[in-house]
Amino acid sequence: MIGDSRVLAVRDEVYEYNQERWEALVAADALFTRPMLDLDAEKARAYLGLERLGIAGDLAGRKVLCLAGGGGQQSAAFALLGADVTVLDISSGQLERDRLAAEHYGVDVRTVQGDMRDLSALDGASFDLVWHPYSLTFVPDSRVVFREVARVVARGGHYYVMCANPFFSGLTHDSWNGEGYTLKQPYTDEAATSYPDQDWVYDGKPAGGHICEPREYRQTLGRIVNSLIQVGFVLTYISEVRNGHPDAEPGSWVHFTSVAPPWLEFVWQFHPGILER
Fold first, then answer.
1. Among candidate residues 228, 149, 216, 161, the one with its CA nearest the CA of residue 189
2. Torsions phi, psi of 233, nearest 5?
3. pTM of this prediction?
4. Which of 73, 206, 212, 251: CA 20 to 30 A from 124?
5. Please, are residues 34 and 103 in contact by the beta-carbon 8 Å criterion?
6. Domain boundaries, given as residue ranges, for the chain
7. Three-state secondary structure call for residue 49
C-alpha cells in the first residue's frame, strides 16, 4: 500500500516560490525529478553510499524520512533495501514520481506534501534516519528545519544533510574573471542568492516554459554547526563534494567545482543532552 497525505504549512512567499519552481522543474523533466527505474539492491546500496558515510547498511525495517527529497530516487533506493520509507516534499509532482517508482518496484512508500519547516504531520522520535538531499538553502533560516528534524528523529538516529558550501554559495563558473572566481556576495546568514540553472540540470536541452531561477539563502557554517549541536546532534562525518579535475578549462563548470567545492555533506547523530553530562 502506498499512502499519501497532505500537510499545508504556512503558505508564505518562500513556500509559494519553491512550490512553483519545483512543479515547473517536474514539467521540464529536470535531472532531480527523474525517478530511478533501473535499480536493484546492489545499485541502490552503491548510490546511497551509506558505508562511506558511517551509517549502517542494514536497513531492513528501519524507518527513513526522505526530507524535501521527492522525485523517486532516494525513496526507491531505501525501499529496495528494506527500509520503511516516508517522503516529505513541497511538490505534488515530485511526490507523484515517488509513487511511480514505488509502483514500479512493488514497494511501499508513504508520501506527504509539505514544507521542511513544518513536520507536524510526522510523529515525534519516529525515524532512524532522516535523509536530507540538497534543499536546505531554499529556506532562509536553517534553525527552523533543524528543530523539526530533532523532534522527529529517534535517539541515536542519524541525520544526513547535503547543502551548499557556505563560502561559495551563489558562486558559479560564470564568476570566472580570467584569474579566479570572484566572490561578491556577503557572508551573512539569510543573504538571498540567485543564479541561472546549469545546463546539466536539463541535459543541455531547453527546459521549455518559464522556470524561476533557483532562489537560495546563505546558511553560514557557524549557524549550521552550532544550531545542530544546540538541538542535540553530534557530528560524525563531513565531506566537501567536488570534481577531481583541476586541469579542466578555467571558467567551465568542471573546473569551478574542482577549485571551489560547491557542496558539503554532513552526517549527525542525535544524542540529546550529551553536552549536559
1. 216
2. -95, 145
3. 0.94
4. 73
5. no
6. 4-276
7. coil
Distance CA 127, CA 43 (A): 24
Cell of 141: 533560516
Q: 154, exposed or middle or buried, with CB in 10 Å at 0-12, 13-18, 19+?
A: middle
> 60 with 117: CB under 8 angstroms?
no
The confidence band for 1, taking pLDDT boundaries of 50, 70 and 90, is: very low
CATH of domain 4-276: 3.40.50.150
Amino acid identity for residue 27 in this structure = A
- What gap in Å lies between CA 118 and CA 145, rounded to an integer? 8
Written as nine digits, the cell of 103 is: 509502483
The pLDDT tens digits for 26-78 are: 999 999 999 999 999 999 999 999 999 999 889 999 999 999 999 999 999 99
Look-up of cell digits 517508482: 101
HSE of 49, CA atoms in CB hemisphere, 13 A: 8
In angstroms, the Cα distances linking 231 to 135, 151, 189, 247 are: 20, 9, 19, 42
Instruction: Report, as an integer, the average pLDDT of 84-103.
Output: 98
